[in-house]
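Reopening this one. Same input as before:
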Amino acid sequence: MLTTFCFNADWRLQPPEEAMPPPSGGGSLTTSMATTESRSTLVNSPHPNIMMIGLHGLMYAFGVGYAAQYAAEDPLRGHVIGRSNDLNIAALNRVNFPKLQCVRALSRAMLSELNDADGPAEGGVEGGGGMARYDKWWDMLTREGVRLEDCTGALLGTLPTDEEGVDEGEGDEEGEGDGEDDDDDDDEEEEDDEDSDDWEDEEE
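Same output, byte for byte:
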């Protein structure tokens, strides 16, 4: 029994032409599809056993890293891929997948770029910015009772913490009895400053 499946969220999974309303005002069918559809036709009927969906791609979704540079040089490409991302994410709902529990971003490259940038960009992405898109997806999936996760299973937006406790502990032991109390106090303050705040918490 299939309970998990993965696909590339950059794919253009548009509905068939016969299912589309005729374009109004003499416009093209492509324009009609882009402006009237709120989600991709990802499935033909509900899949009652799917509980986890993994997403490849999403490099252009949050306006960070090398994809943001490409999008700045070729805005149409960034717009088309970002639009596909939005339509595909919107299709991940309890109507199509009644038992869906989590959606997991699988691209390590994308997650690394997000980590390096300390979260999505505030601007430079269609629709107001990478952070605006992240908030929209988070709210959409939360309303469905679905977790948005990274490839480790942590909530998307949970930044890794620095694992420096061992080195700092060894330094404290070597400095015991040296009377450098001021330095110890400074170390404690630095540790407090280095505690990583999750960018998804800041936006909630």
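So the earlier flakiness isn't reproducible anymore. For the record, The two ends are 36 Å apart (CA to CA).
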